[in-house]
Amino acid sequence: MAFRSGFVSIIGRPNAGKSTLLNALLGQKLAIVTHKPQTTRTRIHGVLEVPLRKKTRTDAGHPAAQIVLVDTPGIHKPATQLDRRMMQEVHDALEARDLVLFLVDVTHRLPRENDETNQSPTARRRKLSAAEDDFAMTFVRKLTCPVLLVLNKIDSVAKADLLPLIAHWSSLHNFAAVIPISAKKKQGLDLLLDQTVAQLPEGQRYFPKHQLTDQPERFLVAEIIREKILLLTGEEVPYATAVVIERYEEPASMRKTKDGKLPVTKIAAAIFCERAGQKAILIGKNGEMLKRIGTTARKEIESLLGTRVFLELFVKVHEDWRSSASFVEDLDWRRQLEEIAAKQVDK
Ligand SMILES: Nc1nc2c(ncn2[C@@H]2O[C@H](COP(=O)(O)OP(=O)(O)OP(=O)(O)O)[C@@H](O)[C@H]2O)c(=O)[nH]1
């Protein structure tokens, strides 16, 4: 069976579980995950090698493949420049794709016929949810590649509740297949992989065999810091923060020091927020909050990098940065990478 390869974008509403699915398929944490919607801000490539599975009497098997998974920001109506940038990331992730996985959260209630006239809070919530589904479907309808409907979070609903969901979603688009999964509990992932490989064209690898992502470690580090902010702070603070790595010094050698300690990576990061009040929350009483963010982030960064980490965090205010097109553009890690490369050439 000839080798297959292709780009597979994972799209869906905020909080559908896209990043959880990416991490589950890769068997490694690449994208940050929180219970807060709109956690993912850029598209993230994760490279998955799928070994050949030989055909048997009971199993159709599949060829070996390289799947380039693309995690994307949750589809939502944009209100700020940041939102617009996030939706542009989704559009970019949908260009020239071989396959799209449209992820749906099965815990969302389906609309009912009398919702239009029903004024109860539940009916209003269902109506809002249906409007958000409609908006997400506008992205799906434009696609010319095959789309798999992936019903996620099946661990949280009764099996009998899945049938009406399948009927509802299947009536909205000609999906190539419907696959119920739990990204969190890693259920249904084998079937999802089988169906994914089946849809890919024959072709060579896009990335070297052992490369997990095209995103350099310094940007993964920035995301880990942002994840801790999202998890540790409340109200509007998580949405109003951005993390920029200002200094990133890798150790000259990965060898242990003479006293048997791991080498040190020195990192300085700026946490941008929009108001002085948010800065005060991020720093906390006697600097307690910033310390907690730093300590929890450092531990995870150390295990990612395999070194000790010296992490300095600074909080800076940039009024209404989410509405500044140039600031939002500068946050794009691909652009930051180009600037770093240009500076190195100058040097
Ligand atoms: N019960 C259950 N929860 C899940 C499952 N998959 C994801 N979640 C939870 O759903 C929440 C959102 O997960 P994410 O992976 O961040 O969702 P996302 O679609 O990437 O979110 P955005 O970045 O906002 O677009 C987290 O609290 C996850 O733990 C699942 O299969 N079952």
UniProtKB/TrEMBL annotation:
<feature type="region of interest" description="G1">
    <location>
        <begin position="12"/>
        <end position="19"/>
    </location>
</feature>
<dbReference type="GO" id="GO:0000028">
    <property type="term" value="P:ribosomal small subunit assembly"/>
</dbReference>
<comment type="subunit">
    <text>Monomer.</text>
</comment>
<feature type="binding site">
    <location>
        <begin position="12"/>
        <end position="19"/>
    </location>
    <ligand>
        <name>GTP</name>
    </ligand>
</feature>
<dbReference type="InterPro" id="IPR006073">
    <property type="entry name" value="GTP-bd"/>
</dbReference>
<dbReference type="InterPro" id="IPR005225">
    <property type="entry name" value="Small_GTP-bd"/>
</dbReference>
<dbReference type="InterPro" id="IPR004044">
    <property type="entry name" value="KH_dom_type_2"/>
</dbReference>
<feature type="region of interest" description="G5">
    <location>
        <begin position="181"/>
        <end position="183"/>
    </location>
</feature>
<dbReference type="InterPro" id="IPR027417">
    <property type="entry name" value="P-loop_NTPase"/>
</dbReference>
<dbReference type="GO" id="GO:0003924">
    <property type="term" value="F:GTPase activity"/>
</dbReference>
<dbReference type="InterPro" id="IPR015946">
    <property type="entry name" value="KH_dom-like_a/b"/>
</dbReference>
<feature type="region of interest" description="G2">
    <location>
        <begin position="38"/>
        <end position="42"/>
    </location>
</feature>
<dbReference type="GO" id="GO:0005829">
    <property type="term" value="C:cytosol"/>
</dbReference>
<protein>
    <recommendedName>
        <fullName>GTPase Era</fullName>
    </recommendedName>
</protein>
<feature type="domain" description="Era-type G">
    <location>
        <begin position="4"/>
        <end position="202"/>
    </location>
</feature>
<keyword id="KW-0342">GTP-binding</keyword>
<dbReference type="GO" id="GO:0005525">
    <property type="term" value="F:GTP binding"/>
</dbReference>
<comment type="similarity">
    <text>Belongs to the TRAFAC class TrmE-Era-EngA-EngB-Septin-like GTPase superfamily. Era GTPase family.</text>
</comment>
<dbReference type="Pfam" id="PF01926">
    <property type="entry name" value="MMR_HSR1"/>
</dbReference>
<dbReference type="Pfam" id="PF07650">
    <property type="entry name" value="KH_2"/>
</dbReference>
<feature type="region of interest" description="G4">
    <location>
        <begin position="152"/>
        <end position="155"/>
    </location>
</feature>
<comment type="function">
    <text>An essential GTPase that binds both GDP and GTP, with rapid nucleotide exchange. Plays a role in 16S rRNA processing and 30S ribosomal subunit biogenesis and possibly also in cell cycle regulation and energy metabolism.</text>
</comment>
<keyword id="KW-1003">Cell membrane</keyword>
<dbReference type="InterPro" id="IPR030388">
    <property type="entry name" value="G_ERA_dom"/>
</dbReference>
<dbReference type="InterPro" id="IPR005662">
    <property type="entry name" value="GTPase_Era-like"/>
</dbReference>
<dbReference type="GO" id="GO:0043024">
    <property type="term" value="F:ribosomal small subunit binding"/>
</dbReference>
<keyword id="KW-0472">Membrane</keyword>
<feature type="binding site">
    <location>
        <begin position="152"/>
        <end position="155"/>
    </location>
    <ligand>
        <name>GTP</name>
    </ligand>
</feature>
<dbReference type="GO" id="GO:0070181">
    <property type="term" value="F:small ribosomal subunit rRNA binding"/>
</dbReference>
<keyword id="KW-0694">RNA-binding</keyword>
<feature type="binding site">
    <location>
        <begin position="71"/>
        <end position="75"/>
    </location>
    <ligand>
        <name>GTP</name>
    </ligand>
</feature>
<dbReference type="InterPro" id="IPR009019">
    <property type="entry name" value="KH_sf_prok-type"/>
</dbReference>
<feature type="region of interest" description="G3">
    <location>
        <begin position="71"/>
        <end position="74"/>
    </location>
</feature>
<keyword id="KW-0963">Cytoplasm</keyword>
<dbReference type="GO" id="GO:0005886">
    <property type="term" value="C:plasma membrane"/>
</dbReference>
<keyword id="KW-0547">Nucleotide-binding</keyword>
<keyword id="KW-0699">rRNA-binding</keyword>
<keyword id="KW-0690">Ribosome biogenesis</keyword>
